[in-house]
Amino acid sequence: MTEGNLLRQILEYGNRPNPYPLYAELRKTPVLNEGDGAYVVSTYWEILSLLHDPRVSSDPHNLAVPGGPGFDPEDGSALPPSFIRLDPPEHDRLRRMTNTSFGPPHKPRRVHEMRAELGDIVSGLIEGIGNTDRIDLVEQFSYPFPVTVICRLLGVPREDESRFHTWADTLAASLDPMPGEDPTERNKIAQKARTELGMYLAGLIEERRKNPRDDMLSELATLKGPDGSMSTMELLSTSALLLIAGHETTVNLITNGMLTLLRNPDVLQRLREDPKLAVPIVEELLRFEPPVQLVPNRTTLTDIEIGGVTIPKGASLWLVVAAGNRDPQRFADPERFDPDREDIEHLGFGSGIHSCFGAPLARLEAQLALSELARRLVNPRLLEDPPEYRQNAVLRGPRHLPIACDDIRP
């Protein structure tokens, strides 16, 4: 195995079920120059340093050679970039404004107060499973749960939630690279979904400006604070970001979580007996099987020396957070799933100014989902291992997770 093809191997679909041996190989060269302008960083302390380095940019316009592979949820969109693709001060302004209606210090209990509603959604999905001989956990649970939650948070009317499910499904599918496939038709379908989503949100925003309600979209639409107010286009980008980027990661967190628990039946049994164990289990999952494996959309604003290597200005920077999460220089016995770890300072939600905005909600969704699945599914078991994975190497998770159980407890 040569250094120069490690990243290509990681991106190959055949390695999706288990990329971790490749990550271990990658860590032998903590800062790897792939020879095509890309620099791949795979060790914990170096990744953490770069995530906090103001000389690292999230704006693709700063790349010396624009384009290249990587996850871009706004690719082909007429919307302006959301704040995850911007640098300070614009990033900070938009993130601060969004945070006023999402969490501390302005709405410190918003996520906590959703707990009962989230529990009702989880119960409804489990009760609707039907035939327990073959359950597709993704289609029947992991996927619809976060979409329903983000719709409720934004204030999408219940009767329109199914439309959001359809748009989210189409746009999520467009993120998966399909080698050998002509992307023209798929891009056309995705662009149509983006346009429909944008038009729907624009109408909803206008309606909320006239008749505000107690929901996040109303608060963002009517916000007037020290940073001013969001334009309609900024509101559209932020809403689309919350729907697509946040939803996709939570689907993978729940699905990877259940897959890991079924592979570790002793931990699953402990969770069944003690739902509070869901908190450390989710933190260890974010280290052990993070829903975002790579952060490929960063670049350097100046030459940066890290790990004995000088990364030149304008280079494409790939931060392999899933490799950093299993760095033996940072975590003892990193290849073992251990929710009893006393120190799980993982990179699962990133770090620094771009740390995951929806982390409190994603944590709560995963904790409730996994604890209730553990409690209610009688003798759950995998029907396929490994399951079929999605194409995307960045947002890594099963496309389907076929399981069975003997019964569903009330």
How would you characterize the overall build of this protein?
The protein is an alpha+beta fold. The chain has one domain (3-408): Cytochrome p450, CATH 1.10.630. 45% of the residues lie in helices and 9% in strands. The protein has 15 helices and twelve strands. It has helices at 6-11, 20-26, 44-51, 90-99, 115-127, 137-142, 144-154, 161-175, 184-210, 216-222, 232-263, 265-273, 278-288, 321-324, 359-376, and strands at residues 31-33, 38-41, 56-57, 135-136, 295-300, 304-306, 309-311, 316-319, 377-378, 381-382, 402-404, 407-408. The protein has a five-stranded mixed β-sheet with strand order 1-2-8-5-3, covered by helices on one side. The chain has a three-stranded antiparallel β-sheet with strand order 4-11-10. A hairpin with a 4-residue loop joins strand 1 and strand 2 (38-41). Helix 5 (115-127) runs antiparallel to helix 7 (144-154), helix 7 packs across helix 8 and helix 7 (144-154) packs antiparallel against helix 11. It is globular, with a radius of gyration of 21 Å. 44% of the residues are buried. Residues 68-76 have low confidence and may be disordered.
Sum up the structure in keywords.
globular; 12 strands; alpha+beta; single chain; Cytochrome p450; 5-stranded mixed β-sheet; 410 residues; 15 helices; 3-stranded antiparallel β-sheet
Secondary structure elements and their pairing?
Layout: H1 6-11, H2 20-26, E1 31-33, E2 38-41, H3 44-51, E3 56-57, H4 90-99, H5 115-127, E4 135-136, H6 137-142, H7 144-154, H8 161-175, H9 184-210, H10 216-222, H11 232-263, H12 265-273, H13 278-288, E5 295-300, E6 304-306, E7 309-311, E8 316-319, H14 321-324, H15 359-376, E9 377-378, E10 381-382, E11 402-404, E12 407-408
Helix pairs in contact: 5-7, 5-15, 7-8, 7-11, 8-9, 9-10, 9-11, 11-13, 11-15, 12-15, 13-15
